[in-house]
Amino acid sequence: MKHIMVLGSGCKSCKTTCDLIEMHAERLGVEIDLHHSGDPDLMRRYQMRSMPGVVVDHTLVHCGGLPDQEDIEAWLQDDAC
């Protein structure tokens, strides 16, 4: 199971990022534990420079803007994240 957290203020981009991750996980048959957090301490801890941020298994993999389909699929399928 992949543990994924979307970090951000809860704006439309954050919600869309969550929706995209859920959609691709379902399509690929990957079990995920997806959460959203607006906690500024977490954002500082992961040294985010822009929102939304995506953390997969405790590693920041994306910052700013909507992630591409290819990126999401790589996060979901990569055991190294």
Strand order of the largest sheet: 2-1-3-4
Query: Low-confidence parts, pLDDT < 50 over ≥5 residues?
Result: none
Number of helices: 3
User: What is the rounded Rg?
Assistant: 11 Å
Q: How many strand segments? A: 4
Q: What is the string of helix and strand elements?
A: EHEHEEH
Shape: globular
Structural class by SSE content: alpha+beta
| C-alpha termini separation | 12 Å
**Mean pLDDT, rounded to whole units?**
94
Specify the biggest β-sheet: 4 strands, mixed
Helix fraction by DSSP (H/I, runs of at least 4): 25-40%
Strand content: 25-35%
Structural account:
This protein is α+β, with helices and mostly antiparallel strands and 81 residues long. The chain has helices spanning 12-28, 40-45, 69-77; strands at residues 2-7, 32-37, 53-56, 59-63. A four-stranded mixed β-sheet has the order 2-1-3-4, covered by helices on one side. The radius of gyration is 11 Å and the shape is globular.
Topology record:
Layout (H helix, E strand, L loop, with lengths): L1 E6 L4 H17 L3 E6 L2 H6 L7 E4 L2 E5 L5 H9 L4
Parallel strand pairs: 1-2
Antiparallel strand pairs: 1-3, 3-4
Helix pairs in contact: 1-3
In a nutshell, what does this entry contain?
This protein is α+β, with helices and mostly antiparallel strands and 81 residues long. A 4-stranded mixed sheet has the order 2-1-3-4, with helices on one face. It has helices at 12-28, 40-45, 69-77; strands spanning 2-7, 32-37, 53-56, 59-63.
Descriptive labels:
alpha+beta; 4-stranded mixed β-sheet; globular; 4 strands; 26% strand; 81 residues; 3 helices
